[in-house]
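Re-running the complex after MR caught last week's input typo. The corrected sequence lines follow. Everything else is unchanged.
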Amino acid sequence: MNLFTDIRALVVEKLDDLVADGVLPAGLDYANVAVEPPRDALHGDMATNAAMVLAKPAKSKPRDIAEALAAKLADDPRITNAEVAGPGFLNMRLEASIWQSLVANVLEQGTNYGQSNVGQGKRINVEFVSANPTGPLHVGHTRGAVFGDALSSLLGYAGYDVDREYYINDGGAQVDVLARSVYLRYLEAHGQEVAFEDETYPGEYLIEVGQDLKDEKGDAYVGQSESVWLSEIREYASDKMMDLIRADLASLGIKMDVFFSEKSLYGTGLIEAALKSLEDKGLIYEGVLEPPKGKKPEDWEPRVQTLFKSTEHGDDVDRPVKKSDGTWTYFAPDIAYHYDKVTRGYDALIDIFGADHGGYVKRMKAAVSALSDSKTPLDIKLTQLVKLYKNGEPFKMSKRAGTFVTLRDVVEQVGPDVARFVMLTRKNDATLDFDFDKVLEQSRDNPVFYVQYAHARIRSVLRKAAEQGIAVDDATLKAADLSNLAHESEINVAKKLAEWPRLVEIAARTHEPHRVAFYLYELASELHGLWNKGNELPELRFLQEGNAAASQSKIALARSVAVVIAAGLGILGVTPAEEMR
RNA sequence: GCACCCAUAGCUCAGCUGGAUAGAGCGCUGCCCUCCGAAGGCAGAGGCCGCAGGUUCGAAUCCUGCUGGGUGCGCCA
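Corrected-run output:
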């Protein structure tokens, strides 16, 4: 249930009446007619722009249409009054009973309240993290992981059938580097002195892998050439790294539905098939690229390569799919991977990349557009950098100094709930400041705390009520007499609750889970405000002394706030707090 | 040189498929606990929405051009 769509349906119904009355011409397009909360609450509960949108096509004055529409709307029992304002806005006020029954409705539906069917069960694939299997996840990955997971949950809540997917880059040279690094640790486990050259990973997390390899294989690889061990260790090591990464993700509560291996594209004809598909569309040719202007590489020389005509699908230049020596570029398996996603029958694809892959967006969109004949939309969300702070001071990361911060470091220091919430209180395309101290601060300045506090307060009221022998189960609460929830402050809380379903749809449509976090902050603010009003106005307190029935109706409102907070936090992957400590 | 992202209060940031007098928090000023958690609340001051044009009933929002910051740019994935 969504009050805004209900009222919009009413507006449309009344517009049709006006058409029947001959006030408006037939055949008008209502697509742009919106019913929204007015920016200023003084204007009313809901506003529609119908008159302004329809004035031109109806060849009429906005205010005339608005007046006629207002008269029609005033007939509806739900509308207390409808008045024209400004250039032709129509402001509506709703009966208090609407807001009261909304509270009952929230309790009826529980955390399903706000779920939407805008997704219509469409299948959507969200690919995220996709870090190379060469080591543990770091902070940058954390943001992408949290964002992707929350977006997936949000889309699921909005009625999509979502698959979370991880693309394992286990086909390239970086896995060879990993294998060589593990080999060094393996030799080390055999007591040899080893040196880590530039082209190796010196990270200590490989010590254990080398040791395990020794335990399994003994000295079988010692003193052997790469041709003996490279491919085997590559496999062994990348499996180990994926175990590590899976555990990292699990520590944040993230579980992927699909892990797709790049390696599985090679030697199976999948890359060839994808390229063939493009070739059949006339989008593959042999050619020479222009050097990039202004930043000409020293060793630039013209080369003939196999190119994908990505410019025909919105890219700036055509992109190579084969190197001059005939081997695939990185782009080729990526095309094949997306071809696979397209052929798996998804209605839409979402890729989540780090900001450093921004240059990749156009060619990837071009590829999917070409592969699916523009039928499968691909949205690519970039997550910007995370800047770390400690006590307000920038926290420098350096791989060499061993001070690079991993996902595990973050989770261990602040916990998964805080890490997730903080990462989601910013738009994905804005850089994020993450201060290890500030995120644990207990004040209004810290949204995590503030929202959790609101939830904990409500739980506290429920506990208190139970101690006093008042029944506070949802079945009892929703049957309570809610008509005394009539004070402006109480109605305002209910109005905020009414926005939830609408917000879910907006956030899902724009692929912006941060909107959920901001909404929860606003809702928490309403709750805290009402709570404090109880200081001066005892009739607003949730616990009405000696009056169980009155208490139950007040608590019903508080409980419905807790339900929506829990639902919102659920989307963000955060556990609602029972109490603050 | 080109592409993408960002620019809103002193600071950190919201702002819905274009809507009315642009909103929060921090900081600043002043208030509110015999009362369900003051870990909170209320009020006040604080704005050329980077600059300049354009589109229209209407622009922080869309388009173009600038300025400043970030990211990236053919045999690295």
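None of the earlier attempt is carried over here. The radius of gyration of chain A is 29 Å. Residues 226-251 of chain A form the longest helix (26 residues).
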